[in-house]
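Structural prep section.
Before we set up the soaks we want a predicted structure of the protein with guanosine-5'-diphosphate in place, mainly to decide which crystallisation condition to try first. Input record follows.
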Amino acid sequence: MFATLSDRLADTFKNLRGKGRLSEADIDATAREIRIALLEADVALPVVKEFVAAVKERARGEEVSQALNPAQQIVKIVNEELVAILGGETRRLRYAKTGPTVIMLAGLQGAGKTTLAAKLALWLKEQGKTPMLVACDLQRPNAVRQLEVNGERVGVPVFAPEPGNGVGDPVSVARASIEEAKRRLHDVVIVDTAGRLGVDAELMQQASDIRDAVTPDEVLFVVDAMIGQDAVSTAQAFLDGVGYDGVVLTKLDGDARGGAALSIASITGKPVMFASNGEKMTDFDLFHPDRMASRILD
Ligand code: GDP
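Run finished without errors. Recording the tokens verbatim:
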């Protein structure tokens, strides 16, 4: 991911190298190149405009005109603006002060929620927590089984509706899971919810009802980084329909151009908290905006 963006920006900065002083034309040309690089990476247009304007304004200021190496100073500015757009500091999970911490996952079908639920459970286990997974995706045939299989892989129990009880209602399952977690002394509950292929009102309502039933400490919006420009409208729809505290980007190991990461963080104002980058259960970690920015500018 970000390979094209990274290459384009490297070329842009190469053109500046060795210049003692930057003229207005140099700054304009650089801004234009950065704009093209971001658009090619699939970053949403309003985000590109804002980004380029911020870089341009700072490039005209004292920090560049007084710098011994203006080109390096521009790279530093772009780096700082990238970190800012990606959410600034690494945002860590907030744990409940009393009772189990409830983390609810929302997103489209295929985003990687069920996989992510297990990865997050494993990660929490490694932090010394005793998580429990909850299967509230009762829409998709097999989703409960898939979560159970993933739960077994990471050695985390899964709370699911009793087989033979009919399909069950996800809100009741979610509510019952919290009681179960308290009884069994699980300190984190991860609630996997149903996703659809597209955003729809019924899905939003169900997710909102589950949210109201379990009052999560964190709602995480799970989104496939490969969906490019569509990620922005989906992220906005879930923000309006369900609301969330942070974003989890999945499939960062794919050949996505990276625009989704930048656009979602900027447009929703919600931090990217975790990144999932592979099929293995350990391919998952906290998202560090500064490391991601350095990777782009490497
Ligand atoms: P859900 O419908 O949102 O629950 O999505 P799933 O968890 O079933 O994931 C959909 C597909 O994406 C599965 O084939 C997963 O193996 C795959 N997947 C999930 N996360 C990642 C990831 O980070 N990288 C890659 N390459 N594939 C992933």
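Observations: The pocket of guanosine-5'-diphosphate is lined by residues 107, 109-115, 195, 250-251, 253-254, 276-279, 283 (CB under 6 Å).
Flagged for discussion at group meeting.
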